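Milestone 3.1: sequence recovery, worked example.
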C-alpha cells in the first residue's frame, strides 16, 4: 500500500473512531523549545516539577529518544462539549467542560490502540513501532498539532482550529513508518484580539502565549495540592475544577464553532453526567469520601481527590457570600482533612456575620492544627474589621 493511500485510510479510521482533527508531522525537534525552556527557568510551571527532569527535557527536545524508530507522528484532536458563556448561579460550582463526562485518559487510549492495530492490519505486519500519548508524555503536543496543520496556538495557549474553535483534546501516536506530512498551519489568526488576556480572572495569561501556572485557576484547582493563595481565592469565583474562561470569550468559539453545549455529534463518553456540570456547592461541601468516589468514578475530577475538591468548594462558597452556605461550611470545619477545615474557615470569614463568627470561635477552641488556627484567626479578624466598618 502506498504511503498516501495508507494515510488516507488512517484518517478515515480515526474519523470513525470519533476524532475530528487528524494530521501528520515529522519527529524533528520542536521549533519553540526555547520558549518552553524559558517558561521552566522562570518557574512558571509552578509545582509541576516533573516537567523539568533531565530525562523529560531531553525527550521533549528529540522525539526519537521516545521512539528510536519514529518516522512520523500522527496528531489527533477530539471535540468535547463547549462551555456556555452564560453565568451559572453563584450557588452552583463550575467544572471545566472537558470534565463533564468520562476521563479522556480512560477513553482515548483504547481508540489509539485501535488505530495502531488498524495500521498493522493495513500493511500486513505483526508490529509497527509505536508510542502514544494523550496529555501524558514529554512532548510539546500543541506545537506538533500546529506542525500537523490542525490549527494555531492562540494567545490563550490553546490550539485553535479555524473551523471548530479550541474545545479539543489532543493525542499523538509516534509511528515507525513514514507517512506524508501535512503542511504546517503558519498563520496567526488571533490578530489584535486580546479578549482572553483581558478576561482571565487571575491575569495568568502572558504576552508570549504562555501561562503563569502559579496564577492559573486550572492549575490551582487541580494540580495544587496545598493551600490556595489567599490573594487569588476571590478571583477563583465558583470554579471548583478547572476553568474555561479564556475559551469562552474567544471569538473563534463564540462565533464560528458549534455551540450545542452538549456532547459533540456521535460522542457519548464526554457527554455531561448528572450533577457534574453545575453541582450545588452546599451539597458538594458535605460529600463523604464514599459519596465523592461514587459520584466521580471514571471522572477527571478524581484527580483532585476529595480533600482538594472540597477545598475548592469551600472557596466557592465563600465567594458566593450567601449566609445559607454557612451550615455546609460549618460541616467543613469538622472535616478530618485540615486543608478542608482551613478553607472553610476562610470562607466563613468571607461571608461574615454573627453566626459565622460564633462558629469560628467554637472551632478555635478545639482546633489543634496550626495552619487551621491561623485561618480561623484571620477570618475572625476579617469579620471584626467588617463589623467596625458598618
Amino acid at each position: 500500500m502506498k504511503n498516501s493511500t495508507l494515510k488516507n485510510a488512517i484518517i478515515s479510521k480515526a474519523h470513525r473512531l470519533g476524532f475530528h482533527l487528524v494530521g501528520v508531522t515529522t519527529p524533528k525537534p520542536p521549533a519553540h523549545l526555547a520558549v518552553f525552556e524559558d517558561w521552566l527557568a522562570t518557574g512558571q510551571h509552578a509545582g509541576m516539577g516533573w516537567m523539568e527532569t533531565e530525562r523529560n527535557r531531553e525527550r521533549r527536545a528529540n522525539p526519537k529518544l521516545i521512539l528510536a524508530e519514529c518516522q512520523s507522528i500522527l496528531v489527533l484532536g477530539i471535540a468535547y462539549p463547549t462551555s456556555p458563556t452564560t453565568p451559572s448561579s453563584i450557588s452552583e460550582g463550575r467544572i471545566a467542560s472537558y470534565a463533564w463526562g468520562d476521563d479522556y485518559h480512560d477513553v482515548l487510549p483504547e481508540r489509539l490502540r485501535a488505530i495502531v492495530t488498524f495500521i498493522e492490519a493495513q500493511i500486513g505486519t505483526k508490529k509497527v513501532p509505536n508510542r502514544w500519548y494523550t496529555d501524558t508524555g514529554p512532548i510539546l503536543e500543541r506545537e506538533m498539532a500546529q506542525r500537523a496543520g490542525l490549527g494555531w496556538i492562540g494567545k490563550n495557549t490553546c490550539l485553535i482550529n479555524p473551523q471548530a474553535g479550541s474545545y479539543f483534546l489532543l493525542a499523538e501516536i509516534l509511528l515507525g513508518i513514514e507517512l506524508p506530512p501535512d503542511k504546517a498551519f503558519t498563520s496567526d489568526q488571533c490578530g489584535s484580539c486580546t479578549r482572553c488576556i483581558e478576561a482571565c480572572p487571575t491575569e495568568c495569561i502572558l504576552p508570549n502565549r504562555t501561562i503563569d501556572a502559579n496564577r492559573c485557576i486550572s492549575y490551582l484547582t487541580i494540580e495544587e495540592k496545598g493551600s490556595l493563595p489567599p490573594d487569588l481565592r476571590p478571583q477563583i469565583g465558583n470554579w471548583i475544577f478547572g476553568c474555561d474562561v479564556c475559551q469562552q470569550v474567544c471569538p473563534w468559539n463564540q462565533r464560528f464553532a458549534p455551540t450545542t453545549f452538549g456532547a459533540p455529534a456521535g460522542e457519548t463518553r464526554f457527554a455531561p453526567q448528572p450533577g457534574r456540570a453545575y453541582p450545588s456547592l452546599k451539597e458538594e461541601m458535605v460529600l463523604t469520601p464514599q459519596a465523592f468516589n461514587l459520584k466521580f468514578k471514571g471522572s477527571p475530577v478524581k484527580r483532585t481527590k476529595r480533600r482538594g475538591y472540597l477545598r475548592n468548594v469551600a472557596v466557592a462558597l465563600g465567594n458566593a457570600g450567601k449566609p445559607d452556605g454557612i451550615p455546609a461550611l460549618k460541616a467543613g470545619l469538622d472535616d478530618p482533612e485540615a486543608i478542608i477545615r482551613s478553607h472553610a474557615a476562610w470562607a466563613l470569614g468571607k461571608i461574615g456575620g454573627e453566626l459565622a463568627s460564633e462558629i469560628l470561635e467554637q472551632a478555635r477552641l478545639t482546633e489543634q492544627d496550626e495552619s487551621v488556627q491561623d485561618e480561623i484567626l484571620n477570618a475572625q479578624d476579617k469579620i471584626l474589621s467588617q463589623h467596625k466598618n458598618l
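DSSP finds 17 helices and eight strands in the chain. Residues 3-80+102-175 form one domain.
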